[in-house]
Amino acid sequence: MITNRFIRTTALLTLLAGNEAMAVGFRLPNQDPEGIARGNAFAATADNPSAIYYNPAGITQLDGNHLSVGVYAISTNIDFKSAAGGNASTIQDLQYVPQIYYVCSPEDSPLSYGFGVYAPYGLGIDYDGATPFDTLAQEGSLLYATFNPVVAYQINSQLSVAAGITANYSKVDLTRSIFGPGSEFTFRGDGWDVGYNLGLLWQPVKEWSFGLNYRSSTSINFEGESFAEPFADWQHTEAELDFPYFIVGGVSYRPNDDWNFEFNLDWTDWDSVNDATFKGTFGGDQIFPFRYRSSFMYEFGVTRQLGDGYYISGGYIYSENSVPGNTLSPLNPDSNLHLGSIGFGHRGDVVSWAVGYHFAYNGGRTVRNNTPSLIGESANGEWKTFNHAVNVSVRYQF
Asked: Per residue in 324-356, is it b (16+ CB within 10 Å) or e — as a string?
């Protein structure tokens, strides 16, 4: 007999797993094709409107008005093989994430203003058909959209600082099995929160530039409904989840007008994503741990100017794993990732464009100590990741 305690605990564990998304942790650091092509090593360059995300102090380098519109398209390719021989793979449909940035730098003013709309966390994952871990996860999506006004102040020709407010909307939609076919748990909810971002850009000499970018943590209370078939009808449910702060430091070296080399160190406070509180799910409040761990991304990029406004870039990222094996969810099988990238574009007096491509590859991660579900299913086995993504943008200057 299925007890209320069993249903309640299973539902809560489902919610916990479902708010993880497939990315580096569940961040989406790829916010512009010029940045992506350079392995996101862009905090110390930050010379286009996407600086609103990468380093808002960089918008003081732009004169007049700039509007940039782009889209990031990613295909998530994850393969799993359990020790017992079971297999699972994700559906590889493209997912699209839009990016919009606007910058206004009034003439003869030390102030620049910007507004960005982008998604710093999120994406989703869907396993095609039955899996060896149906009671851990079947499919889930996390949308986290940021509306980000910023103001930057050019203190002098070498130093700029910036601050902004982030209004963040998030939506979760997930499904998993409770104890097998015909018993599914679904949760749908959304919520808002407010945070802030800061930036600093210092270029003491022409050849060297230093950048610092900080984004605050947020905590969103998702309000929505949950449904456990065939045991209970839709009912009001809340889930409070934390999103971590991150800080990025970068140094750019430009030996001449044709070359730009940059290295960024990107740290995310995943340790703060520790507990999640769920309210109203089949009665009672309970707290469950994520047990994530803080991690670095090491980012390197280079750009070569080709003349007449054309350029080509390349980059590499090493992203440390942020999800321990015992709490790994099939909706976020994070691992140590290698990301390679390339891109090209053209900057004109009025219209500019850029294209960037990157892949993410983990070489395989073996998990042995994953905590099983209440019917004994686990994520123990080998996880392989090979994702592809393309970002394109067009900018209009007026």
From this structure: ebebbbbbbbbbebebebbbbbebeeeebbbbb
**Sign of the C-alpha dihedral, residues 347, 53, 334, 337?**
positive
Which candidate, 182, 133, 131, places its Cα nearest to that of 376? 133
Rg (C-alpha) for the chain, rounded Å, is 22
| Residue in the block written with tokens 């919610």 | 15
Domain ranges of the chain: 4-397
Q: Does domain 4-397 have CATH number 1.20.1530.20?
A: no
Query: How many Å apart are CA 113 and CA 365, to the nearest integer?
Result: 44
pLDDT 10s per residue in the chain (398 long)? 444 444 444 334 433 433 333 446 688 899 999 999 999 999 999 999 999 999 999 999 999 999 999 999 988 888 999 877 889 888 877 788 899 999 999 999 999 999 999 999 987 788 877 788 887 777 888 889 999 999 999 999 999 999 999 999 999 887 877 776 677 778 889 999 999 999 999 999 999 999 999 999 999 999 988 777 777 678 888 888 889 999 999 999 999 999 999 999 999 999 888 766 666 655 445 555 577 899 999 999 999 999 999 999 999 999 999 988 888 888 888 899 999 999 999 999 999 999 999 999 998 899 998 888 878 888 899 999 998 999 999 999 99
